[in-house]
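input
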Amino acid sequence: MTRSIEIRLADRGDVAAIAAMFAQDTLGGHGDSADPAELPLYLAAFDRIATSPNDALYVAVRDGEVVGTFQTTLITSLTGKGASSLTIEAVHTRTDMRGLGIGQSMVNHAIAQGRDQGARLVQLMSNAVRHDAHRFYQNLGFTRSHAGFKMKLR
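output
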């Protein structure tokens, strides 16, 4: 029996669980930590996201526990005659909960949000070493279309 997944906007009380999920990530290389001494950094970021009119941070909840997270950003550009795009960022399912359809539920929720906000497309980036994630996104209908570039500032 599949237990239901609730997807909702994250609140400050979810931040420690989100940070703990990110800290489990061995591929991302983001240096995340579940150390309570680091929590103020995550809370400051949460506050910035929560007050942004174009950003939203979500959690997936199963049996009262945060088991996944993702963030969306609506970007409006002059290209495409002023069209908006929804970017999905930081999709993460708790390690012990993978393979249960949580990721698919989160991405489908993000796609629905994009439609509701009138976005012309939904986009995301995935680290080049995340081959399983690439298959996952392709199975959901995403196609590879661009090469990504980054420059670390700190």
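quick obs: The chain has a mean pLDDT of 89.
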